[in-house]
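Revision sheet: structure tokens.
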Amino acid sequence: MEKKKKVTIIGSGFSALSASCYLAKSGHEVEVFEKNATIGGRARQLKKDGFTFDMGPSWYWMPDVFDRFFADFGKKTTDYYELIKLSPAYRVYFGVNEFITIADNLAEIEATFESIEKGSGAILNKFIREAKSNYDIAIKDLVYRPGVSPLELVTIETTKKIGQFFSNISRDVHKKFKNERLIQILEFPVLFLGAKPSDTPSFYSFMNYADFGMGTWHPKTGMFDVVRAMESLATELGVTFHTNSNIEKIIVENKIATAIVVNGVTITSDLVLSGADYHHTETLLDKEYRAYSEKYWESRVFAPSSLLFYVGFDKKIENISHHALFFDVDFYQHAKDIYDEPQWPKEPLFYANFPSLTDKTAAPEGMESGFFLVPLAPGINDTEELREQYFDKIIDRFELLTQQNIKKSIIFKKSFCKNDFVTEYNSYKGNAYGMANTLLQTAFLRPKLKSKKVGNLYFAGQLTVPGPGVPPALISGKLVSDLINKQFLD
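Predicted:
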């Protein structure tokens, strides 16, 4: 058995935090270097004028993945934070005061579907049973494989479902349901995978089970509770954190990563692990050591970027739920504006959440904190003028659809868009969620956890396996740690 190693980790998002915990548990000496002033990567927190906002992820789905992570350390999520199951889970608006409420249990959701389209309740029940079967195969098994070989996908269970890899979510849902509103609600969860429903294999219906079968949760004071919990666990395990630490270069000697340069200082280690943007990390290497060319990255399908607004209101907002989707315009046209003909959407779909409905610490008493998101094509032109123009568009629609005036009640507002994703997170083309999970970008077809050109250089996060989202990021940290331990501790 080889001795334990000194590991330097670049970035402090969910995948890096996860990897730091697993590697420290194995006895390695782990240091994490974060370029920003606070840890958490895209899941950082913004506090201003008494308002608190999660800056990135705001949906807590797949609670079993979080449970499994903490259980690996003999812990429970309840050791660190409290979860609240949202009831309702969310609302989807289609017109003026015209919305569909998604309950916190499948029986009520089936009744809602049945009330809108006769016979659809029973069809939904069967669809979700199949989605649960996919979930059990994917989340309990497949996603915990490191993407090294195509054979990882070949199991007794997956061979029974081979056809689902060659159909897509959109086709399947349209076959089963006729009502366009119900179809859009069922297509929505795969947007978390970063691709159009028509480009997402049917097998990924497991996201519908994550939605309707497992429910939508909220850590008591926001998603940053999870970041704090993982930081606390990592610290207990001996991990050291450094913020305001910009990584300028990865030093390679004899084709092995031996050090990183941080704020002009060279820090040596036995191996380097990056939880930062994969493309950016490779630009820290001399060109000969980069495993993927610019042409390769240009050819990939990336998840959308986002236009985000963090808004404080001096009053309580009416006719809303914690999470709300605004699908009162053409769902498919907006998707085309992201993927087919990249441009600012003429009529944007948008999402809003009001954490202060659930968490009283998110806003001063009698006030409301709001988070608004418009999905955008990555690499799009981003200006302050466009941001303001689109803020006016979505707030005008919000006022109309919820029948209230809120503009004059805004006392704080901050925007975040493509340019910020680039400067704050070194995100390729300013994408918000990584690389889309299309058929040709699944599992072993994604960029590798272990560098193909540089020894002792590893990667984790949304651009490698298993893919975009917070639960996959936790899993990514485990997978890369297992690979490292296999190399050095077996």
